[in-house]
Amino acid sequence: MQEGAMQAWIESSPLAGGNAAYVEELFELFLDDPNSVPAEWRELFQQLPASEDADVKHSEIREQFRAAAKAKYKQVGGGELTSEEAEKQVRVLQLINAYRFRGHQHANLDPLGLWKQETVADLSLSHHNLGKEDLDKEFNVGSLQIGKETAKLSEIHAALESIYCGSIGAEYMHIVSTKEKRWIQQRLETQLGKPSFSAEERKRALKELVAADGLEKYLGSKFPGAKRFSLEGGDALVPLLKSLIRRAGEAGSKEVVIGMAHRGRLNVLVNVLGKQPKELFDEFAGKSSTDKAGDVKYHMGFSSDFETDGGNVHLALAFNPSHLEIVNPVVMGSVRARMDRRGCKDGSLALPITIHGDAAIAGQGIVQETFNLSQTRAYGVGGSVRVVVNNQVGFTTSKQEDARSTQYCTDIAKMVQAPIFHVNADDPEAVLFVAQLAVDYRNTFKRDVVIDLVCYRRHGHNEADEPNATQPLMYQKIKKHPVPREIYAQRLISQNIVKESDVKELVSHYRDALDVGECVVDEWRPMESHSSDWASFIDKDWDAEYDASITVDELKELGKKVTTLPEGFKLNSRVNRAYDERVKMAAGERDLDWGMGETLAYASLVKAGQAIRLTGQDCGRGTFFHRHAVLHNQTDAETYTPLQHVADDQAPAEIYDSVLSEAAVMAFEYGYATAEPHTLVMWEAQFGDFANGAQVVIDQFLSSGEQKWGRLCGLTLLLPHGYEGQGPEHSSARLERFLQLSADHNWSVCIPTTPAQVFNMIRRQQLRPVRRPLIVMTPKSLLRHPEAVSSLEDLAEGVFHNVIGETDALDSKKVKRVVFCSGKVYYDLVAARRKAKQDNVAIVRVEQLYPFPHAEMAEVLKEYQHVEDFVWCQEEPQNQGAWYSSQHHFREAIPSGARLTYAGRAASSSPAVGYASVHKEQQDKLVNEALSI
Fold this sequence. Notes:
The chain is of the alpha/beta class.
C-alpha cells in the first residue's frame, strides 16, 4: 500500500482522530494493570518508549501511538469505532478491572451473614456509564478468561459476579508481577467461580467434615467443660489441610511442617495427623507417661506419615506455647533445615503451613517479621501457605476498630505481595479449590500465599467461656446456624451424590471408631526415617565423653586454609592488616587473638564433617570488627568466605548477615536446630541486650522446650557482654535472666576469657553427644586485649576449662583472699593486683556459670582450704549479673567456716550508668573492693 493510503488508515484507525480519547483511556488501564486490556493493545503499548517524565504531554503519547500503528499496520488493521462504542468498550474493560481489584469486597464470605461490607461503587454498572440497554450488546472481554473474545455485557457481568463475588474473594491485584497476576486470573476465571470436583472427592470432603464435627461432639459429651479450643464453626480446616497435603505430595513434597495455636489443634492432631484418639483421651484424663514437666494437650506436637498419590509425605506439627504466632518462624527454620538436609534449594521437597487466628495474625508483630524473612537468602523456604481460621472475634474483641486498623486481618501479607484468598468456610468445594490453588501458586512462584478461612467460633474462647456476654447478636445467630457438615450433606443429597442414610452411616461409623480409639485417618502410614538421627543424643549425660583432640600441625594447616585468598582479591586495608596478623598466628609466630581462635574452631568442625550455620545482624564481619568471616573484594564487591574452602569434602559453612530482627530470627534458628543435630547453629546478637527482643523465644522454647516437649536443641547464642562505659543499653546481655531460668541441666551458660577457651567451647558444643542450648556472654574489649591471647598449643589441649585457677606465680600459702569472677573484669583485677604488687589475693575465673562446675571448683580450691575470705566480684549491679542466682554455689564451694562477700556495683534498675566518668569511678571502686583485704 502506498504511503498516502497508510497515512489515511492511521488517521481513521482507533489510534488517532476521534478515538484518541478511547486509546488514552485504554492506555491508563494498561498502566494500572497490563492484563486489563486486550492482548493486541497490550502488545502495542508495551512497545511504546518508556519515559521517566511522569507528566508526558498527550500530544507526545498520540505521536507514539501513530508511530507504533505505522510499525504494526499489517498486523493490527481495523476500522473506525464510533466514539460512543469506543467509550462503552473502555467502560466494560474498566468494569472487569474493578472486579479484579475490589470484587472481594462484595463476596459472600461470612457464613453468618454478619459482615457489613461497604458498597463499592466501582462494581456497579452505572458507575461505568453502563445500563440495562447495554446488557445485550457484545463487547471485547479483554483478558477476561471466559473462553471467548467477545460476549454480551450481561454474560460478562454474570461471570464477574460468579468469579469474584461468590464464596471466594481473591485479593491479588496488589502483586507487581504481571506474570503472577495473569496466572491467578487464568486459574480463577476459567472456573467461573464454580470449581468442579468428582463425586468421590465430594464424598471424601463430606467424610472429613463428619470427622471434624464428630470429634468435637464426642469430646464435648465425654469431657464436658474441659478446655479443648473447639474447631466447631471452622470444621473446613480439616479438609483444607488434607487437601493442601495431598496437593503438595502430588507435586513432589516429602515433608510438611505445620504450626498452629490452640483453636482446632486437637482436631488436627486426630483427624489430619492420625494421633490415636485413645492417647488424646488419656491426656484429657490427666494420665502421664513421662517424668518431664510436660505441657497441656493443646500445645503438643506430633509426627506421622500421610499417603498421597505422589508418595508418602512426612507430617510434623510443631510444639507451640501460648504465645500464638511465635511458632511461625520456628516452622520456617525447621523447614529450612529439612531442605538443607535434602539438598533442596527451592522448597519443592518441604512445605511450611502456618495456621493463624484472625486476631493474632493482625495483632502480633512476629507475623510481619516472619513475612520479611520469606525472600531472604538466609531464611527463604520457597514460600509458605498461611491459613487464617477467621472466627471474626478474638477472645472477646469483635469490633473491627478495636481488633485492627485495616479492613482485613490478612492485610499484613500484602507487604510481601502475597495473594490472599478469602473463602467462605461453609462452602467446602470453594475451600478445596483454594487449597489446590494456594499450593500450586507457592510451588510455581516460590512465594507466600494466604488463605483466609472465614468461619465462626461456636463456643467461647474456650468451652468454659460465656460468649453471649460480649457477642450476643453473633451467638444468637450461631445458635441457629447449622454445622458445616449438615449444610454440605444437604447440598450433596440435593445433587443425588449421597443419601441421607449414607450421612447417618458416616456419623455412626466415625463415632464407633472413636470408641475403639485407634487411628481414624485413612491416609496415615507408619513413619519412615525422614529426619536426622537423634538417637545418639537422647538420654546422654551432660558430661558424656567425646573426642576433641587436635594437633598443632592440624591447626597450622587449618590456619593456612582460612588465610588463603583468591588471586587478586583486594581486601580493605584494615581487614588486610588483620589477615596479615592471622598468617603469623597460623604459623605459630605470634599468639592468637579472639577472631582467629573462633575461626579455627569453625574450620576444624567443617573439616570434620560438622556443618555450621551462623546468623546475626553483622555476623559476617562481626559487630566489633573481629571476625571477618565473609570478605568483600574492594574492586568489585564480590564476597569470599574462607571457611567454605577448608577441604574438598568439608561440611557446609553458612554465614549470613540477618534481617534486623531478634525474635523471628532467633525463633527460626531454634526451629532449625530442633530439626538438625548435625549442624552447629548459632545466632549472634549485635549487642547482647538485643536478645531481650526475643525473650519469648528464650523463655518458651530455649529454656524449657526439652522439659515441656522433649525437644532437644543445640542452638548457641553469642551475646556480646561487658562494661566498657558505653551506657545502659549495650553493657549487659542480661546474664541474670539466663541464670534465673537455669535448671534441669537445660543449657550451659559460659563466659570464656581466652581464644583457647572459645575455641574449645565451640568444639565441645558440637562434638559431645549432647544437644542442649549454649548461652555465651561474648566479649567486646577482649577481642583485641593484649592479655586475651592464646597459643596454638593452648588450643590443641582440646579441653574447655569450666574453672580457671590462678595463673600468676603466687605462693598459695600466702593467699589470704580468693576472688571469684567471670568475664572481662578478670583482666581489670589482674592489672590492678600487679600494679599494687599484691601477692596475697588469688583470682579464680568461673568460665561456666551453669551447670555450676562443683568438681572443677573443688580441685582449684584444694590449695586454698586455709583461706577464710572469699569474694565474688562482678561488673553488673548487685541485683543483676550472677550474684543472686549463683551465690549458693559459691557458698557450697568454699571451705567450711569461710565467709563470702560481694564486690560490685550497687543494685540498680538500669544495667549501667550513661556517663564514662561515673563508669570509671564505679569500675575502679569495685576492683579495689575486691582486692583490698
